[in-house]
Amino acid sequence: MQTNSDLSPSLAPPQAESSVPATTAPRGRLAAIFSLDAPSLQPLLLLILGLNLLFWVAFPSLLLSGPDADNMEELVWGNVFQWGYYKHPPLPSWVHYALMSVFGRHIWITFLAAQLSVALGLYFIWRLGCEITSQRNALLAVLLTMPIAYFTTRGVMSNHNTIQLWSVAGSIWMLYRAWRYQHLRDWILLGMFSGFATLTKYSMAVWFLIFIVHLVRSGSLRDARTWKGMLAGTALLVVMVLPHAMWLYHMKYVLHDRANPLDYAADSADIISRADNLLAIWYVLTTTLARLAPMLLAMLVVGGLMRRARRRQAMPVQAAGASIAAHLRPEDRRFILLLALVPFVLTCAVSIAIGTRMIADWTTTYFLMTGLLVFWLYPENSDRRLIKTVLVTVLVIQFLTAAGYAVGRGPLASILGKAGRSNFPSHAVARAAKHAWYSHVHAPLRFITSDTWLGGNIAIHSGRQAQVLINGDLHDSPWVDPEQLKACGMLVAINASPDTPDVVMPQVAAAMKEAKWTGTYSVPATLDPNGPQVVVKWGVVPPAGGCIPSTYHHHHWKCRFSGHEERAPRRPFFMPAHGSPAPMPPPALAPDARWRPAPLPRRGATPVP
User: Fold this and answer.
1) Which H/E stretch holds residue 517?
2) What are the backbone dihedrals phi and psi of residue 462, each rounded to the nearest 5 degrees, phi first?
3) Out of 3, 43, 115, 284, which residue is the most buried by the measure of CB atoms under 10 Å away?
4) How much is the mean pLDDT over the chain?
């Protein structure tokens, strides 16, 4: 039985079981670095993860005109740094804030953020696998994990479930190292990864419970070093989470503002009827099976290719040797089974027992360890041909899935006249909205009062100075200063499309009533001009004067109709081509015409005016 006593507890890349002869040719050296026989398989793994990231960022970025709703939320929230947001903790929005600070506010950065989390998560799971078994076995597990839908079609959805993948994977890896080697550094790193995971989503509490169960079951809590390490890691976690916790306490218990993640989580996990609860669990189980299907498909394809290769070479079928799992330490087998299976089973059991609503997306991080279960299916010392077949099969599946996802939800859907978020005419809708604003106001567009989706689509093409007042609610949008809202004016936008009208929040309807200029524009939702239309009702509440320039606002604010900021003396193209237009002073508002956020309920709807 393999004891893994030769594994180094250092964080350096693991050393391989074999090496290749040295070669002087540059091409030969490069091939040797990425060979399955290289001293370290880390370069090969990084190349694989890099190609996978390229597939899943490039295809959606090139072929999709709109992101998913969760991605748009991050583009709206992440435009401003906050210690918390009304739905979730702040770390994913901080990631998008950093990316936007470097690259600007573009749809593709949400795909990049999501897939970076996937790539890091898979890398950490490989490092964990290298602690438990050989590099090749760990590579086999990670390759077969990659096709799972949570890391592919769901892995471009830049929500808190996807962004939590890397920090949960890092926490699992460090838990194993801290438990096995009892190094203080590993406990501290466990606290760091756990802090990042907690700042991403409070569901990390489930993993904390699993971690404690593992330490209790393994008897590690009888070791004084464990308590010392837990204390150090917990101290770092508290320091990391403290600013957000103070913000959360202030919002919930000082301001008694329900626009906070705790109240949102409580509303999301509401008690439902037994029939609805069982139906939800059934949907979670069937959806999970469907999302695991690509991994099962890859395994079937690999099995078929291996049998075909053996028949072609007339190789005798050898008796299957002991599985990889049989060569692992018993405590390592228990570790894998506990962390790969129990979180999902526990969450479903609690949901059934309490009768709360459950959604399959909430279980995203529970499948990071699924690939390690193949240790019970494949033999130890699998030949090189198997690993190579798995590698080629998975990369082909990833390429075809990424291309098919982007083509199907983008150009193909538009050609077939199927309107959706991924083929939403974002540029055209924003262009028409900016035309409505700049036709009446000679000042930058700073505030857009609308729902997150429509307002976000206008804002991301209007410069980083454009902020969304989500649903007209200042509680949901703490980055909006009420006085500046009056001073700078706002564009009100309501989706009035006959096919997919949005629910209009009372505050948005109230803001529309205060608009001095109103109108409606229509944009084809697909490539068929006679097909579905995106109909937007707009209103302009003009500036009252005294608008403070935005931090992101260039000195010369004038914008072209396309939305790109230009330097003087360039003009917006919708202005007269000859001569200089007379400056438009900010229109004065009568005192009774100034819009103020109405103290109406945050939930509910009114008809489109």
Assistant:
1) strand 517-524
2) -120, 10
3) 115
4) 86
Contacts of residue 318, Cβ cutoff 8 Å, sequence gap at least 6: none
Cα R_g (the chain), whole angstroms = 27
Return d(Cα 82, Cα 99) in angstroms, integer. 15
> CA dist 139 to 7, 122, 150, 341, 374, Å?
16, 10, 19, 20, 11
DSSP string, 228-276: HHHHHHHHHHHHHHHHHHHHHHIIIIIS--S-SHHHHHHHHT-B--HHH
Task: State residue 563's pLDDT score.
Answer: 37
Q: For residues 197 and 267, what is the distance between their CA atoms, to the nearest angstrom?
A: 22
What are the C-alpha distances in Å from 387 to residues 128, 147, 295?
Answer: 19, 16, 15
pLDDT in tens, 64-96: 999 999 999 999 999 999 999 999 999 999 999
Condensed to tens digits (0 to 9), the pLDDT of residues 576-603 reads: 333 333 333 333 333 333 334 434 334 3
Is residue 206 within 8 Å of residue 363, measured between CB atoms? no
What lies within 8 Å, CB to CB, of 288 at 6+ separation is: 344, 360, 363
CA distance 170 to 172: 5
Task: Name the token pair of 130.
Answer: 């290298």
